[in-house]
């Protein structure tokens, strides 16, 4: 689990009314500029790249961008505390590993509010099992005002996340693609899943495994979409007594 309160627009150097083309252009430019391989693997470059990837993943998806904008708007609504001071509702994101959406988790949320003279506030957030991506939790702050916490997924090395659906690649031999059959893939909970390969499947085609995605807001789970890729063929040629 990872906690973040960064503004994704600020991470890309953009305003909230920016167009999709501007988001893509800014991401490509900054991702190249801060790539760890071009910065000697510096820790700051790695952190910056992770922030850029997360910002692009959210803002390039119209549905997730809309939810993010709504969260920012809610954070701008002030409330009045018991001592008469106006306190704002603060919106923050908590980023979870994929498996935590299934099994649930408990985490501490740290709130840094410049208007709170008492210092940093820490609240315990209990995330129940089968929580959907984008779920918002509302907490009442000790010193007035509110706290809106939205749970989002961390980038994953295997899966691409699109709402409640997950996408991954599966490399198979050309012979398997031609003849069809079954292959195995690891699902998001760590279980091994059977992928039925129809005979003659083309490279890039997708096989859908129903109900093996992330939890949905109204119950049930999304799907796991497996894109079929071909393993490169090894060609051996003989020149005289040497094999190449």
Keywords:
single chain; 244 residues; alpha+beta; Helix Hairpins; HSP40/DNAj peptide-binding domain; 4-stranded mixed beta sheet; disordered N terminus
Short account of what is shown:
The protein is of the alpha+beta class and 244 residues long.
What does the model show?
The chain is an alpha+beta fold. The chain folds into three domains: 1-60, DnaJ domain (Helix Hairpins), CATH 1.10.287; 75-155, Urease metallochaperone UreE, N-terminal domain (HSP40/DNAj peptide-binding domain, Sandwich); 160-230, Urease metallochaperone UreE, N-terminal domain (HSP40/DNAj peptide-binding domain, Sandwich), CATH 2.60.260.20. The chain is 25% helix and 33% strand. The chain has helices spanning 8-11, 20-33, 43-59, 62-75, 98-103, 174-179; strands at residues 2-4, 78-80, 86-88, 90-96, 105-111, 121-127, 136-140, 146-153, 160-162, 165-172, 181-186, 192-197, 206-209, 224-230, 238-239, 242-243. It has a four-stranded mixed beta sheet with strand order 1-4-8-7. A four-stranded mixed beta sheet has the order 9-10-14-13. The longest helix is centred in the first third of the chain and has 17 residues, at 43-59. The chain starts with a strand and ends with a strand. Mean pLDDT is 83; it is low at 1-5.
Distance between the termini: 48 Å
Q: Largest beta sheet: what is the strand line-up? A: 1-4-8-7
Let me know the number of strands: 16
CATH 4th-level superfamily of the largest domain: Urease metallochaperone UreE, N-terminal domain
What's the number of domains?
Answer: 3
| Major sheet | 4 strands, mixed
């Amino acid at each position: 689990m990872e906690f973040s309160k960064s503004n994704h627009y600020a991470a890309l150097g953009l305003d909230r009314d920016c167009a999709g083309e501007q988001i893509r252009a800014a991401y490509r430019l900054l991702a190249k500029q801060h790539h760890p391989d071009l910065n000697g693997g510096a820790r700051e470059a790695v952190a910056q790249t992770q922030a850029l990837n997360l910002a692009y993943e959210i803002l390039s998806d119209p549905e997730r961008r809309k939810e993010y904008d709504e969260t920012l708007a809610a954070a701008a609504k002030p409330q009045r505390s018991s001592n008469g001071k106006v306190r704002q509702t603060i919106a923050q994101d908590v980023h979870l590993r994929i498996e935590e959406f299934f099994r649930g988790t408990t985490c501490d949320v740290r709130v840094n509010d410049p208007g709170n003279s008492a210092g940093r506030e820490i609240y315990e957030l209990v995330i129940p099992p089968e929580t959907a991506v984008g779920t918002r939790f509302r907490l009442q702050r000790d010193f007035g005002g509110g706290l809106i916490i939205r749970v989002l997924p961390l980038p994953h090395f295997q899966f691409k996340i699109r709402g409640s659906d997950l996408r991954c690649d599966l490399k198979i031999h050309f012979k398997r693609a031609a003849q069809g059959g079954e292959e195995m893939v690891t699902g998001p909970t760590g279980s091994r899943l059977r992928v039925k390969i129809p005979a003659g499947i083309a490279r890039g085609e997708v096989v859908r495994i129903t109900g093996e995605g992330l939890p949905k807001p109204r119950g049930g789970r999304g799907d796991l979409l497996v894109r079929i890729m071909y393993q490169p063929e090894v060609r051996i040629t003989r020149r005289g007594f040497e094999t190449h």
